[in-house]
Design goal:
The protein is mainly alpha-helical and 103 residues long. The chain has one domain (2-95): Vaccinia Virus protein VP39 (Rossmann fold). Helix content is 54%, strand content 8%. The chain has a two-stranded parallel sheet. Strand 1 (59-62), helix 5 and strand 2 (81-84) form a beta-alpha-beta unit. The longest helix has 12 residues, at 40-51. The protein is globular, with a radius of gyration of 14 Å.
Length: 103
């Protein structure tokens, strides 16, 4: 249930709790967040593309989660996109997307 995850995510303050929550949520995160109208990755990528001429410049996506921002950056023409996250399960999903390196 999406609301269940959102409520827990907004209430979480402990790193271990946050890591566990996002590990559990990884399988449905993309669908859940998109269903809420989440548009930040596309907007951020479009803005970065507007102001950064060198699309080969390395980008590090901190808190990359499942890779929604990495996919948007790739769609905007960026080529060297790395990501990092505290959730191993989120990184496993992101690894299947666009990132050059994951940590």
């Amino acid at each position: 249930m999406t609301k269940h995850y959102f409520d827990k995510a907004y209430a979480a303050r402990d790193t271990q709790v946050i890591r566990s929550l996002y590990d559990e949520w990884a399988g449905s995160y993309d669908e859940d967040i998109k269903a809420q109208g989440y548009a930040t990755p596309d907007r951020a990528a479009a803005t970065l593309a507007e102001f950064l001429d060198n699309k080969d410049a390395p980008i590090f996506d901190i808190g990359c989660g499942t890779g929604l921002s990495g996919a948007a950056l790739k769609q905007a023409g960026f080529t060297t996109i790395d990501g990092g996250d505290v959730s191993a399960a989120m990184l496993a999903v992101a690894r299947k997307k666009i990132y050059t390196a994951i940590c």
